[in-house]
Structures are given as C-alpha cells and as structure tokens.
Here is the input.
Amino acid sequence: MSEERPRQRTPWPPVPTEPPTPHAQAPGPGTKLQVHYDECFGCGELDGGLHMRSTVGEHAHVHAEFTVTEAHQGAPGLAHGGLLACAFDEALGSAVGNLLQRPAVTGKLETDFLRPVPVGSTLFITAKLDGTAGRKIYASADGRLDSADGPIAVRARALFVEVAFEHFTSHGYADAMERFRRTRPQTWDINP
Ligand SMILES: CCCCCCCC(=O)SCCNC(=O)CCNC(=O)[C@H](O)C(C)(C)COP(=O)(O)OP(=O)(O)OC[C@H]1O[C@@H](n2cnc3c(N)ncnc32)[C@H](O)[C@@H]1OP(=O)(O)O
Here is the structure.
C-alpha cells in the first residue's frame, strides 16, 4: 500500500495550460469557506451528507476534511468509494469556485484509491489548481488519513468546465440559483 506506487501515469494536465491565477477577490489563506448551498450533499447539513468544511491554505490550496461515519459505508466498516469520490469532487469544486471565482461544473473526475478508509477516520484533503485552458480548468487533490501528514489514501484529479449561469437555471432550481448568485456577484461577471 505504498503511496509511491505510480498509478497515475498519464500526463497531467493532459493539454497545454495557463497557470491558474486566483481571482483578485479570492479568499486568502486562513479563510474558512462558507457552505455554498445548504442542500449540497458535500458541504450542506443534510442527514447522511458529508458535512465537509474547507479552508484556504497557502499557495492557492484548499484544505477540506471529511469524517467517515456509519452513513458512508460500502463494505462493513469501510467508506464507500463513490462517497470518497464525492468528497474529492466537493474539495476540488471548492478550490475552483472560490479561488478562480468562475462558475464551473465537473466534466471528468478520476480517483485512485490507495488505502482503505475506515468508518471513524477523517480524510484530510488538499486540493490545488493545476492549469486552465479556455473554459477547461484542471485540478487535483490528495487525501491523507487522519492527519494532514498521514499516509495518502485517495488521490483525484478532475476537469471542470466553465459554464454560463443559464446552465444552472435551465437544468436546476432557478430561484435557488438566483439567491446563490447574489452572494457571489464577482463569480457571474465572467461569461464563458
Ligand atoms: C450552486 C453552484 C454550485 C456549483 C458547483 C457544482 C459542482 C457539481 O456538482 S457539477 C455536477 C456534475 N457535473 C455535471 O452535471 C456536468 C454535466 N455535463 C455538462 O453539463 C456538459 O457536458 C459540460 C458543461 C461539462 C460540457 O459541455 P459543453 O458546455 O457543451 O462543452 P464541451 O464543448 O462539450 O466541453 C468543453 C471542453 O471540455 C472538454 N470536456 C468536456 N467533458 C470532458 C470529459 N469528460 N473528458 C475530457 N474532456 C472533456 C471538451 O472536450 C471540450 O474541450 P475543447 O474546448 O478543447 O474542445
């Protein structure tokens, strides 16, 4: 179960990219990030949700924690892999949305599960932005077991695609999105 095992062999990002420059109004290091939507399975307060909390770190990293409960099992006593992927989607999306202040959705998410993650353990996830190419935003994350310097249990990398506000209002709850937009006006000034 070595974290040195080279599971991710393909180049990353897979295309030439620009450095990801944080938005001028991006929250700075030490900022505890707010729940972006109360009903979000990742960061909201839903029963059985992941209840994740994130903080901006140095060097445009976002640190998030996910504590695995009985509600998150796949095998007895072990976290479900799909929910671990969800935790990474949340942490990576939080990095993209908060640091770049660009509205984007997950287009692709890949995960490497390196160690079992037992019920009762906490994954310390560090997400970072790797590059942008037009509307495409590449990000990756490591999840360490039970402490910020614990062994890496899960790795993930993802492509987010910038979308227009209408993506959310056409396909989701338009009224809830209007309320969300008012909390982040700088995010919606940028049109893809
Ligand atoms: C309240 C606000 C909260 C916001 C955070 C929400 C986070 C989430 O939970 S997102 C939920 C899960 N994700 C989704 O539902 C997204 C569903 N998918 C879609 O809507 C579309 O497929 C979408 C928007 C990703 C891309 O569609 P579209 O806008 O037509 O762009 P499209 O031209 O297909 O793709 C754009 C670029 O990304 C690339 N791309 C898109 N998907 C992929 C993929 N899976 N793999 C590789 N490349 C991809 C395309 O090849 C294209 O590249 P290029 O510009 O070089 O040609």
Notes: Residues 36-37, 93, 105-108, 134-136, 159, 161, 163, 180 surround octanoyl-coenzyme A (CB under 6 Å). The beta strands are 53-56, 61-67, 104-113, 122-133, 136-145, 152-162. The domain at 53-189 is CATH 3.10.129.10 (Thiol Ester Dehydrase; Chain A).
